[in-house]
Amino acid sequence: MKKVFLLLLFLVSAFAGHAQILLNEGFNVTTTTATPPTGWTVTSTGTNSGCYTEHISQVTSGGFTCAAAGAGPTPNAYSGTGMAGYNSWSIYLGGISDLVSPALNFSGLGTMKLKVWIFNQNTLISNAHDSLFIAVNTTPTFAGSTVLYANDPEYNSSPAGWTQYTFTIPSSFSGTTNYIVFRGQSYYGQDIFFDEVQVLTATPPAPTFTSNSPVCPFSTATFTATTSAAYPSPTFTLTGPGITAQTSTTGVFNLPNVTAANAGTFSVTVSSGGFTSAPATTTLALYPTPTAISTSNIGTPSSCLSPDGSFQINGLGASTSYTLIYRLGGVTQPNKTITSNGSGSYLLGGLLAGVYDSIRVISGAPSNCTSNVLTAPVIVPAPNPPATPVINYTNPVCPGSTLSLSVNNVLAGATYSWLAP
Predict the structure, then answer these.
(1) Rounded to whole angstroms, how far apart are CA atoms 128 and 295?
(2) Residues 6 or more apart in contact with residue 320 via CB below 8 angstroms
(3) Where are the beta strands (DSSP E) in 273-320?
């Protein structure tokens, strides 16, 4: 005679709104007990759903009990310290026992899933079809239930060993009171074992999804996705323009140095418990900040110390105000407020000859975005010096006479300074 093994642990989690795992039965006991877990019930009966009716009178005690190891066969639990079992070996033909879960509230949760690990023996003779039924009902009974699984794990069940089965609970079970019923029915064969029962939502809802859009070009875009705490160990997946898919367990994604290639619609999904939500979307927009300014049309000062040199800044927005920042000779100059022309250019004048670099513009509020920085120097050259004067004079002269000096190659408008001993 074989012993029956049932190892159960009950955990029900209920949440307002969406909830993921409503039932998580680990079957973890370490000593034999005939008492079902808290909230569960066990009923042994001669009612046998029309099978083996001639043996109803032979049904005696037995059914679902609990132990820490199996017998005939003696598999280890799939996980933890125990598993659920029905001692069909010890029960006469037609014996039935029902193990019923606590009441489960499916209201507002959408499609539900049931997951269970079943031990398939797949080695026994074909004339000992002990059966395991798994059903869902709105009452704590097998009668009138919807059967999700009906099979003989001892025979013609593959693959052999522990196998996880996933069932979709019909959408008609959407109320506040539902039960999962495990029925063991004996044909005097080997014991039946199952483990790790979970009832959970089929998919998490689409996550809440936000970003810090709009952002400046070349800055960091941050996306934040959240889901209910009812979904343990979530993994978020982000997709969007200009990036490869990214995953995060926190739901926070930072995209540095964004450009126009990243502007557009981003999507995120959340996966939990083996199920993935529908995507949530948000749009990333960039402020209209110049990203490719350049310079041209360098103007030479009229004289070496004249502040009338210039160069043109291109690639700005048309008729737009900016703050201009630049350096002269490695020294940062005072910020300058400028307004571009209708072609998106600005002629920066009043410049001395010298080397200008670190040229950039900052757009106005609310963006206050900085353009690309021109690090290559812009050289405003010094003007060409006048030709060396050619002096005309009479030599020698008599003492006390007048020395006459003149310049042969006079430059119009030039001022000449004479130095003499």
Answers:
(1) 90
(2) 339, 340, 344, 363
(3) 275-276, 280-284, 294-299, 309-314
Kindly indicate the confidence band of residue 401, based on its pLDDT and cuts at 50, 70 and 90: confident
Angle formed at CA 389 by CA 387 and CA 390, multiple of 5 degrees: 120
Tokens found for residue 276: 């993935």
* Cα–Cα dist 237/279, whole Å: 9
Both tokens assigned to 309:
């040199």
Closest C-alpha to 145, from 199, 183, 117: 183
Report CA Rg, the chain.
43
The residue to which tokens 């004339």 are assigned: 127
- Poorest-confidence range of 40-44, 135-139, 287-291? 40-44
Question: Where does residue 374 rank: exposed (0-12), middle (13-18), buried (19+ CB within 10 A)?
Answer: middle
The SS3 call for residue 7 is coil
User: Which amino acid, residue 212?
Assistant: N
| Interval 94-132: pLDDT, tens | 678 888 999 999 887 767 889 999 888 766 555 556 788
Rounded to 10 degrees, the C-alpha dihedral 49/51/53/59 comes to: -80
pLDDT-wise least confident of 24-28, 65-69, 326-330, 386-390? 65-69
Q: Per-residue pLDDT tens for 309-328?
A: 999 999 999 999 999 999 99
Q: What percent helix, strand, coil does the chain show, rounded to 5? A: 0, 40, 60
Q: By three-state DSSP, how is residue 211 classified? A: strand
Where on the phi/psi map is residue 343: left (φ > 0), alpha (ψ -120 to 50), or beta?
A: alpha
